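Question (not urgent): is this output format expected?
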Amino acid sequence: MDAKTIQILVAMVIYMAVVILIGVLYAKKANKSSDNYFLGGRSLGPWVTAMSAEASDMSGWLLMGLPGVAYWCGLADAAWTAIGLAIGTYFNWLLVSKRLRRYSVRANNSITLPDFFSNRFREKSPLIMSIAAVFILIFFTVYAASCFVTCGKLFAQLFGAPYVWMMIIGAIFVLLYTLLGGFLAESASDFMQAIVMIIALVVIVFIGTVTAGGLGAVIENAQSIPGFFEFFGMASPVLDENGKQLVDAAGDPMFGAKAEYSILSVCSMLAWGLGYFGMPQVLLRFMAIRDEKELKPSRRIAMIWVIISLAVAVFIGIMGRAVFPTEHLTKPGAENIFITLATSSLPPILAGFVMAGILAATISSSDSYLLIAASAVAKNLFHGIARKKATDKQVMLVTRITLLVIALVAILIALDKDSVIFNIVSFAWAGFGATFGPIMLFSLFWKRTTRAGAVAGMVGGGAMVFLWKLVISGIGGVFAIYELLPAFIFSSICIVVVSLLTKKPSAAIEADFEAVKNGTDLTA
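Got this back:
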């Protein structure tokens, strides 16, 4: 290991030590009860709510996955995805946050998403809770795997070590941190990590643009590649039989004719925004804020962070092609462009702290994913169904065992070093968006929604994600659309049709709805 690598490692170790310190500081309070561990006692302020929601949401794909897409095939896919996410973020905060904060209190002070859905429909037998918990477990295990892939790629690229061992080391660190501090530590560190992430993005885009010869040179290079710098076109790298981009005699990467980018493709990428309505890691922040009046300033903070971060992440991929046109000649390798820019453009210590930005994004997401998945098993399946008289200590024990099991499964999924972070995230994102997004909106805004409709919507949306991704999309053409959009629509149809065909909700359920709508008697 050379001197430069050692300096980068030292900077990252300092950062990781600060993160661990936060976990230690919050550990005592977090472990007082499962309510504190899973939701922090509804004590988050507006800044922590906003920044932790967005940091836990964006994950390592913001610094690696999204720039990688832009580097590989140009502006269109990455930009339309970013636009969809920004729109989805705004409407989620605007429409869902306040009413969910109220409803989670009214619905027997729910502290997890399965709790909320079950209590919202006043279940006597916890069918909704069970279904929600199972889907959370499935999709968050996949999500955690994407974070472990990010750790593996980061450390392997930096230190030249085997991917698998680097991925496992990163996973162990995240697991230990999540075990230690729970929701409060996670939210506090996410706040810090959101700041680190945006600073890292801005620093790299500034340094990289200067290295490329200025903004004009970056744009000129992008425009020279067919379809690369267009909203309705896409670059087509020329590949060999192993999926590696070919280079011409002059040493330049080879591209074919631009691919057309249809309105259907635009809709497919914009559909990413629909996923926000079903993202547990974001929805829990709405439930955990200390006062609903603080949601408005929190929304503004979140939107500023999201718009800047997404725009800069996309531009880094575009700029990366100008600075290092042939550095990454495979699609999985393209996701390392941020690392390459940082390590080549900055002094080692600063590069280490920028690399900590990737680690920050990964930790802030994976600890959320592991914690929420564990809560689904321990709080909902174990305590809510299997053993209703379990003590808080028993619930916490099951939580920690579950965290370990989920992490092991996620590690197995992440073993493939050729995994594309963006693709893993897109599948899990679709799963949550289609399973929980429609039922969240209908639960909050349509009084006629029934328990049977909720079940049909969750099962229909979750199943359609698998069916569309694994079977229907293979047909091609219009069927190649992102699975979230058709699954979200199908789930909504299921909710409406089944709700109208079944007996309307009881007077008590309707009273809950009206109380939340009017902001009265929330603790009844």
